[in-house]
Write a structure and sequence with these properties.
Elements lengths: L21 H15 L8 H17 L3 E7 L2 E13 L4 E5 L4 E5 L3 E6 L1
Antiparallel strand pairs: 1-2, 1-5, 2-3, 3-4
Pfam families: YolD
InterPro entries: YolD
Protein name: YolD-like family protein
Length: 114
């Protein structure tokens, strides 16, 4: 029989490391998920003004836009028409033929005309 690392006594150095407590496993999984989460960039004033300008033009001229926004694991995109903007509660609602999206201003990364 050819010994391998699962043969008793062959892999003595690591024999005890095969088992893991459930608490340790949960902690490792939490750490991995934190590392995979997306940390968004901070927008400067010029970018915020450009987003504001495109929102105003889009609402006035009923132009379709494509919006890049923050999700937990990375940026996502949605295309549609801006239906409503609430400046006090700081959210925007977009609609397209299939879906509706409600976003808070702090989740918006970029808006462009389609």
């Amino acid at each position: 029989m050819i010994p391998n690392k699962l043969t008793p006594g062959y892999n003595v150095r690591w024999e005890s490391s095969r088992m893991m407590l459930p608490e340790h496993r949960e902690q490792l999984l939490k750490e991995r998920s934190k590392q995979e989460e997306f940390t968004p960039p901070i927008l400067d004033n010029d970018q915020l003004e450009e987003i504001n300008r495109i929102i105003i033009i889009s609402m006035e001229q009923k132009q379709e836009v494509i919006i890049t926004f923050i999700e937990k694991y990375g940026p996502a995109q949605f295309s549609g028409w801006i239906q409503n903007v609430d400046r006090y509660e700081r959210w925007i609602r977009l609609d397209n033929d299939q879906d509706t999206l409600l976003l808070f201003f702090k989740e918006i990364l970029q808006i462009d005309f389609l």
